Amino acid sequence: MSSKLNPLEKKWVLYDVGNSAFTLLVTTIMPIYFNALAEAQGVANDDYLAFWGYATSISTVIVAICGPIFGTVADFPGWKRRLFSISVLVGVLGCVALGFVGHWLWFLVVFVLAKSAYSLSLVFYDSMLTDVTEPERMQRVSANGYAWGYIGSCIPFVLALVLVLMYESLGITMNTAMILAFLLIGLWWILLTIPLWRSYQQKYYTPRTGTPVRDTFRRLGRVFSELARNKKVLFFLIAFFFYIDGVYTIIDMATAYGTSLGLDTTGLLLALLVTQVVAFPAALIFGRLTARRKPENLILICIAAYFLIAIYAMFMSQQYQFWILAVCVGIFQGAIQSMSRAYFANIIPPERSGEYFGIYDIFGKGASFMGTTTVSIVTQITNRSNYGVGALAVMFVIGGLVFLKTAKLSESTERE
Fold first, then answer.
1. In this predicted structure, which of 167-176, 255-264, 300-309 has the lowest mean pLDDT?
2. For the domain with range 7-199+211-415, which CATH number is right: 1.20.1250.20, 3.10.20.740, 3.40.630.30, 3.90.215.10?
């Protein structure tokens, strides 16, 4: 099997590079900017963290509801590319609009819209994996997507960081710097989407009927009924729900958590930049390891590592500890995401990848509703944000135990 990516695989990977810039913005500069808006308008620090968590939770609920429906529609001929395009455009426009919003509440409203559109685009993008490559190459291609996404997103992020941190030296205001930063990320996102737009063709699809709306919900209902019989897919999704819940919550709230602890914001941003740099080789290494080691074993290693990360974060109080956390997250973040995506793509029918990845998104990004809400509620009840983050360790314990069941089912299937 060739280790080199073909032209279509490269264009698919390129979208990861484009959209990852928005993800990095959401986890770094955006929470800090929102904190400044909220604080200037009288919102307390603990409430700021909670409101940010609630906004993230609302976004994931929207995606959890819409993802399976739109994902099922995407399996009709020609619809995957169409829905992908709409979600990208709404996400990019929302990203740019954030720079022009001055009130903290309206900022959250636009943020929910942009993040929901971004997450929906990934439903269609992830399901394209079955169209752009072969089953035996999925782990490698998926790992390249996350790896190059992490390192590539550093380019617009560093430029945006220069604008935000050096706006006075550049002779502009902070508001102008934020407008330019959001605009820069939006342009990066859309420009790196164009190659995939121009080349993608839907290879696997479900024939369209005369009653597409009714057929969409009928097929969606059929998927849920099939899960009851396909134990391997079902147990994987349940395990995925819990462990990826913790992963996405840590990604979404890392900067917000560090800010609530009173850590230096410049140090937080630079530490998370290190996360991106570390994640690049780590994702590629894990992608290569899947050729010699079972993906199930590697995923279990990542889950165990994240359990330890959550415990460590609970006792974090100093800036240097956040740097250690950033490096540890970087090692396992891209690996667990890419391996989970490819593992799922390999155990589902390729012609129905849209509807299955819609369900995947319920158990995936939709699951982070529980994590962000848990962090927010525990933080407000205890007035200690570290207790909220520490609660995420439970998610990894449950996810790991259920995934062990998935691994046993995989072994049984191989023996048969």
1. 255-264
2. 1.20.1250.20
